[in-house]
Amino acid sequence: MNLARLRRRAAQGYWAEAVTHAVSPALGIMAAYFIMALFGFGTPWAFAGASLLTLLALGFGLSRLRRPDKAAIDRRIERASGLRHRPLAMLEDTPENDGPLTAAIWQIHQFRLAASLRNARSGRVFVDAVARDPLGLRALLLLLLLAGAIIAGPQAIPRIAGAFALPEWPFPGPAVNAWITPPAYAGAPPLVLQPGQTYPVLAGSSVTVIVDGPAHPPALILGAKPLAFGTLAQNSFRSDFVLTATAALRVGPWWHPLASWHFQVSPPSSPDITLAKPFIFNRQLVLNWQAKDRYGVESLTAALIPVGHPHAAPELFTLAITGPDPRNVSGVARPDIGDSPFAGLPVSLVLTARNLAGAARSTVPFTITLPPPTWHDKTALALAALRQNLALTPNKPAAGAALDSLARHPLSQITAAADVQMAALAAALNANQISAADAGSLLDGLAHQVELGPDYQPARALAAAALALEQALAQAAQSGKPIEPSRLQNLMAAMQAALAQHLQALRPEDVRPDGSNAMNPGDLNDLAEQIAADEAAGQTAKANAELHQLEQILSALQSAKPMSAAAAARNAVANQAAQDLAKMTQGESALLDQTNQGMAAPAAQAALQGQLASTRQKLGKAGIALPGLDAAAAAMGTAQNALGRQDVTSAMAAEGGAIEGLQKAAAALAASSQGFSFDASGQAGAATDSLENGTNGGPDENATRNLLPSAGDPAGAIQQQIIKNDSNPMLPESTHQYYHRLLNADAP
What we know:
This protein is an alpha+beta fold. The protein has 5 domains: 3-83 and 120-147, no CATH class; 173-266, Immunoglobulin-like (Sandwich); 272-369, Immunoglobulins (Immunoglobulin-like, Sandwich), CATH 2.60.40.10; 380-542 and 554-560, no CATH class; 565-743, no CATH class. Helices cover 51% and strands 15% of the residues. Strands 2-1-4-8-7 form a 5-stranded antiparallel β-sheet, with no helix packed on it. Strands 3-10-9-5-6 form a 5-stranded mixed β-sheet, with helices on one face. Strands 14, 15, 17, 18 and 19 form a 5-stranded antiparallel β-sheet that branches. A hairpin with a 4-residue loop joins strand 17 (346-355) and strand 18. Helix 9 (378-392) packs antiparallel against helix 10 (396-408), helix 17 packs parallel to helix 22 (714-726) and helix 19 runs antiparallel to helix 20 (648-671). It is elongated, with a radius of gyration of 48 Å.
């Protein structure tokens, strides 16, 4: 190896060792402060003190550095190479005696020295930490460093960043003010930010930073992205931005940040929503739901998607959100599915809740089969089928061709107006001048028009008049201000006129020569006036209950359909049976009280049993079979025998069973009051949803609730519903008296 290069490398090693020894105390001081920062003890003033000690230690160490001389460098090479007797020095020696023999010997000696230096080394850098740190403090620093990193965890970086910031004095910097404003949906006030802190925030939160003092705006870095300041005033700057992801924010240069923060951004949570198993009753979809959200539920939407047709546009229902606290809401919704385009098909039901933050969550899908269409007219059924096909597969040209053919050759007798409208809609579909959704709505309206025939316009007028009356009463209830008597009279007069036209179109024989209908509207007048009186008296709960009853009656009147003579006869028998069942229920209840007092006689039970047998015979002749009558008859027989034995306990149990059977029969009769369907054997069954089990698995208690009056005979069905309600022995006497007054309103 070249001796000059060897000496140069040895000198470099010497300097590396010397500098390392000089800066080691300073590095130790800074390492100790770094560990303090991990433990949370780092402050700007502590950093200033540590920096001062580091500079002093560094200056002291560097001041002791000395330039190595040639002899020191040679000694390093000889030690590293294991050479003895200082051969490098002998290379520069000269012999004292001159002569050929001496010169030859000296030359041979020089050759041997040069040969021994061929494997010489400059030596590695050796710190000799053991000799310089006999107490082993370096190991203690490493242990503390590891412990500090574990304890600090995710706060390590923010702690270190805050610990290595210079204090404002004696280098006062610009004043920095910052705050964060949560999104409006959070409902939280702005929060002033403290430098060096970590804040968990919601996505969409806005941050405002204002710097006062400097002539030019300082650097503003969010994560790795520089942001710009806007001029607020002279020597004052402002920046506003929105947080969308976790990031650190720094104001000022990296070597002297004016302020810094760390934001942990998280998205808003979704609502928690639950939906009990839905069922269908009276062509309404009963949804029992509950939703919770920390920000508040904004909307609830039910979607019906036909099974097997994922590309069909879903039918949507918006559910009302009620309650004092939108963060915890629940309710029972009953959207009407009688006119659904997916009637008769299995659909997937999904309820979706969306909160004020825009986050949404849906329930698991429920599969439910919608009831089939209720149309009787063949043309109306064909229009409903066209509407369903268009909803499932929006092929407008095919729908237009089918509708045009139906308009040319209707399946039943239709009005000229309906024929013209069908042809116009067919042309619009063929020319692609209408959307599939709008065409579906028009097809549904045409089906109603064809089905109702002459009653189409009267039915619409009645619906408008009834809606105006209901809205006026509801607004009065909500505002707490009673409706004016003159306005109530005008609304009632308009509703009665529309009702007369509606009933005239349905059953002209029920209209008297003076233009009044056989149904006395006095009950409706009394009920509307009672609602207004209760509202004026501040009895809001009672007024709302009566308003709900009025809505049911008006809804039933609007859905009235013509009744055949045979159906009218069966309905008369059913009405009489309802009255008989109510009287028998009241009699059995009175007998139960007498039995409890020890005053009941077997003959009284026998009389009631005879009345039941007569009613069963009449119902049998009309082809009407009701559940509960057999059980009631058997229970009456058991009660009569028990009374004969003076077995009060058994008699009371049997009488209770008889009452239960009579109530079950009355409820079934009321539920089927919309008309009976008969099979080939002549047995009657409810034309509406089953009472014993709600359609699609609905429970009994829901199936017997909110029963509507008959669509075939509104007056009689209203009377029948009153009789059914009156048959409940648990009602107070004042309620029974009110029902009796309604039942006797038409009596001479």
